[in-house]
Design brief:
By secondary structure, the chain is α/β, with parallel strands linked by helices. It is 48% helix and 12% strand. It contains 12 helices and 9 strands. A 6-stranded parallel sheet has the order 3-2-1-4-5-6, sandwiched between helices. Helix 1 runs parallel beside helix 5 and helix 7 packs across helix 9. The radius of gyration is 20 Å and the shape is elongated. The structure holds nicotinamide-adenine-dinucleotide. Nicotinamide-adenine-dinucleotide binds next to helix 3, strand 7 and helix 5.
Length: 305
């Protein structure tokens, strides 16, 4: 299978992540873009030079690669299977790359259906958030056959710097959910430490500096706390509801395999309980710290002076 840079592609899902990713992917390629939101289509086309599609009813001829960056598996399944889905309209030899954070079980089933139609299927979710989507430095974890992942690799490298072939179909999506459970745990664990530090007379920004100079540091303390939490901005661009979806997928992996996990699954419980109490329609995932603020009467908003 040869997928060259001149391959005609269709990129679907142009939200916080999809827009900058499609813009990078479209450089030097013939790319069509689609989102159910007309504003997203227009903005992405203006930013990237890609051609916007008004709907998926009529596909441009000879699309070889379809990239998906959609909210969840139900929507991925609808786009691929329903009314009529893309699976039944793509030519054998074409490739679908699902870069959304989807459910491994759904991915495995879709990949199986695609294989029966002679269509290659790669799950290639990403990590790094909007900032690294903009710079094209996303971490990408790919699941699929050796042949399909190697064919997808040069396409993925337009959007990321580290493409890891995790294993067969669905393992990219499993790895993504597990990573995000650890990431959420790191936010929660740091909030607990910062609250305890405050009660010992240490200001939040000082404690974050100490952690980042020491062995407790993580991406949460190095990036999320200074930029999105201590500032009170809560503007990472990754919605709490999307994080909750990931944590649910991760919990299913633990439960299905009876893996003992007294630490990480607590973050999921805390986040689920907090979400029920938050008024905001679309809180940012970094607002997880609000649970600890409310429980401990400590404000974790203390930008570096
Ligand atoms: P988003 O909500 O900003 O964007 C999703 C886009 O999909 C929206 O523009 C929406 O209009 C579009 N859409 C929904 N249903 C559609 C349909 N049926 N047809 C066409 N378009 C449709 O979400 P996002 O933050 O860009 O996240 C996208 C995916 O990437 C999710 O699976 C998320 O979990 C994952 N992810 C997000 C981040 C992040 O930092 N935001 C990081 C890594 C992974």
């Amino acid at each position: 299978m040869v997928v060259t840079d001149t391959t005609r592609s269709l990129f679907i899902g142009l939200g916080n992540m999809g827009r900058p990713m499609a813009s990078r992917y479209a450089q030097g390629r013939e790319v069509f873009v689609f989102d159910q939101s007309p504003e997203a289509r227009k903005a992405t086309a203006e930013q990237s030079g890609a051609t916007p599609l008004e709907s998926l009813d009529t596909l441009p001829e000879n699309i070889k690669v379809v990239i998906l960056m959609l909210p969840n598996s139900r929507i991925v399944e609808a786009v691929l299977r329903e009314s009529p889905g893309l699976l039944s309209r793509l030519n054998p030899g074409s490739m679908i790359i699902d870069m959304s954070s989807s459910e491994p079980k759904s991915t495995t089933a879709l990949a199986h259906e695609a294989a029966q139609l002679g269509i290659h299927y790669v799950d290639a979710p990403v990590s790094g958030g909007v900032a690294r989507a903009v710079t094209g430095e996303l971490a990408i974890m790919a699941g699929g056959s050796d042949q399909a992942v190697e064919a997808a690799r040069p396409l993925l490298e337009a959007m990321g710097t580290g493409v890891v072939h995790v294993g067969p179909s669905g393992t990219g999506h499993a790895a993504k959910a597990l990573n995000n459970l650890l990431s959420a745990t790191n936010i929660a664990a740091a909030a607990e430490i910062i609250c305890a530090a405050a009660s010992a007379g240490i200001a939040p920004h000082v404690m974050v500096d100490v952690i980042n100079n020491s062995t407790g540091r993580s991406q949460a303390t190095e990036v999320k706390y200074p930029k999105h939490i201590l500032t009170g901005a809560f503007d990472s661009g990754f919605a709490m509801d999307l994080m909750l979806k990931d944590l649910k997928i991760a919990r299913q992996i633990f439960e299905a395999n009876a893996v003992e996990a007294p630490v990480v699954l607590t973050a999921q419980t805390v986040a689920e309980n907090l979400r029920e109490k938050l008024d905001s329609a679309a809180p940012d995932h970094t607002e997880l710290v609000r649970h600890y603020e409310q429980a401990n009467g400590v404000l974790i908003r203390d930008p570096r002076p």
